[in-house]
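Tutorial handout. Part one gives the primary structure; part two gives the three-dimensional structure as tokens.
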Amino acid sequence: MSRHPKSRKKGHPILKILFVLIVIGMLSSLGEVLTSPRDNYAGNKSTKEDAQDTVSEEVPNASDASTSGRATEAIPLQLFMEVLDGNETLKCKAGETADPLELVQCSSDGQGDVEVKASVASIDLSRPHVEEVSYDVSATSEAGVVSKEQFVVAYQIVDDDCPTIDFGHKKISIEEGASFDPLRNINYVRDAVEGDAEYLISKPSGKTDYSWYTVDSQVDPDEPGIYKVYVHASDSSGNVKDREYQVTVNEKKVEPVKAAAPQGTDYVLNTNTYKFHYPWCSSVKKMKSKNRRDYYGTRDEVIQMGYDPCKNCDP
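Part two.
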């Protein structure tokens, strides 16, 4: 008995169809992957140019985003301010002011342009006081991030200048017994901030809001000698100034008293008898005219001339 070759078992037709569809789908997907770059490059040049434009626009944005990220990630611009010369004390100057923006220097450590605004336009320097100034400082980074900071500076305006005392002379002389006023040799006592000081007989018991001065004179104009006059001045800030000048009282010169010159009298001389008379004497009426001589002078002068007084009128 002869044997027949073993026949193959036939597959199910539906499974075959599914297998074919799967293979076709895979080949189709692989073809799209392989052909897409060439199509985009060769078949559509404008698409590539558009893509390049998109990349070129996105690069700066990416850089900006990176820079912005650095500025906003808790790393703002560091703003600094320092008072020029490190001195917050300003000197009093009568009638003058200071520009607060010229007293400080601000920076962002080179990270951005700085803008500074002050709370006041000027600082009054004409009186001692404390003035607080607020500075608003801002800076903008290259990425456009704005940083702001406020600084407050308390300026102490002080008056540390003493009043000025000006004398007419450092040394003066008067004569014994002459009147003396110690204020006459003082030209002025003046404070640079508060103006002319007020004269007081004695020092005030407490602090004042004005300048003042006192004078202590030890001069005795009736006693010859050398004396001092002391002037003490102070302003409301407690700045004081002391000066002095010298007074010499010279001994009074006593000039000898000159005897008063004797006054003359009218006489009538008799050149014949050498007698002299008062003009009203009765003997004058009897005298001849050629013997009469009128004379004005003293009695002693007439006697020295050799004449004797009349015994009737007794000149």
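Part three, for discussion. The longest helix spans residues 13-43. The domain at 80-158 is CATH 2.60.40 (Immunoglobulin-like).
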